[in-house]
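Protocol step 4 of 5: obtain the predicted structure for the target chain.
Materials: sequence only (see below). No template structures provided, no constraints applied. The aim of this step is simply to have a reference model before the mutagenesis design in step 5. Sequence pasted as it appears in the construct record:
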Amino acid sequence: LLFESSFESAFTDWHTCQWQSRNDDCSTYNGTSEYPATIVTSDGRPTAARFELRDGDVPPFGGNERTEITAPPICDVTEGDERWWSWDMAFSGSWTAPTGSFCLVMQWHHLASESGSPPLCLDIDTDNHMYVANNDASGYTRLDIGPVDPGEWHNYSFHAVFSEDDEVGFVEARIDGVLVLPRHYHRTLVVGDGGGYLKFGIYRASSNTATHIVLFDNVRVYGP
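Step 4 output (structure tokens):
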């Protein structure tokens, strides 16, 4: 076990908080004062992280709309690393299908650059289905794992080897213990970038206008 967080200590376990008013160390945020990301009680859970994204919620450094947190560097990956990670997630009952070109709720972002699309992410498409995706132009892949289920909690568990090589990198996924994506080999790192780091929250194209809300709990990351 490399990292776990059930948000009992708000966001202090996490590395970086990025949203409308913030781009800094999560230890400076108590988890209660800013609507983009707050700690709440939900469905009998003592603590869960709630992320809300409204039209125009662009962080201080610009770009597209986001409310995200980054896992600590101990979770970072480079060529050949193997990881297992899981989390509980619920889309709000008011959730509607995105209208923009992307809407990510989990991503392994490439290490070297803040620009460009991630090589491994969970992307909600305009059909309101979840896709395990490589959105990077050097390895574009989209794998449907089923529809969004608004208002209900589910457990998501992933297993991947991170590689720039299509024959070495792979990902597989389960929802509530059921295999929804058998092992699929494809590139899981951006070619020439060197690695990746883990983020949770909502990151979407600015062309989306609806308010989107997602809750997370019981995040765990494992390595060999």
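Step 4 remarks: The chain has a mean pLDDT of 95. The two ends are 9 Å apart (CA to CA).
Proceed to step 5.
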